[in-house]
Specification:
Structural class: alpha+beta
Radius of gyration: 16 Å
Number of domains: 1
Distance between the termini: 11 Å
Shape: globular
Strand content: 25-35%
Number of helices: 2
Number of strands: 7
Oligomer: single chain
Length: 161
């Protein structure tokens, strides 16, 4: 997925596109947080903002793909990287219908020894931004999840390359 041929033009996007990216990232982080609090884990997923039609604001859609199964080892860990590739393919095939998309995954911050939500959002006009939100699971069933403030970093154009 590192064969990024399009230029990230985030700084050139207007206010409306930035608002759309903020909306999709906020939704993406919220869905991931809900899944973590309810299930303790989440599988990679996508959030897509439909393109506006007739002046109406586009709706948000949640997109997911089926985890690949290993016929030789049904108990094998889920291949999240393969799921992300499938999500990129799915969103790329449907990109004309969307103004913006976000790809969301659970990552490990190796240097910090912590888990985090990673969301890479991109706009159809060519800008991309990512956010990373570290979290800590509760020590026991009665405890609460803690989520750090998300931090932004350069995003990668995967759907609109």
């Amino acid at each position: 997925m590192s064969e990024n041929t399009a230029e990230n033009r985030l700084a050139e996007l207007g206010d409306e596109a930035h608002e759309q990216l903020n909306r999709i990232l906020g939704t993406a982080l919220g869905v991931a947080r809900e899944q973590l609090e309810a299930n303790g884990v989440f599988l990679p997923f996508g959030i897509a903002l439909e393109a506006a039609t007739d002046g109406a604001e586009g709706e948000l859609r949640l997109l997911a793909v089926q985890p690949p199964e290993d016929e030789n080892d049904p108990e094998a860990d889920i291949d999240a990287e393969s799921m992300m590739i499938d999500l990129v393919t799915l969103l790329s095939q449907q990109r004309e219908a969307f103004a913006a998309v976000a790809l969301v995954s659970d990552v490990t911050l190796v240097e910090e020894g912590r888990d985090a939500v990673h969301a890479n959002a991109e706009h159809s006009l060519g800008g991309a931004v990512a956010v990373v939100q570290p979290y800590t699971a509760p020590a026991d069933d009665a405890g609460a999840w803690t989520f750090d403030e998300p931090t932004a970093e350069p995003g990668e154009l995967l759907v609109w390359r």
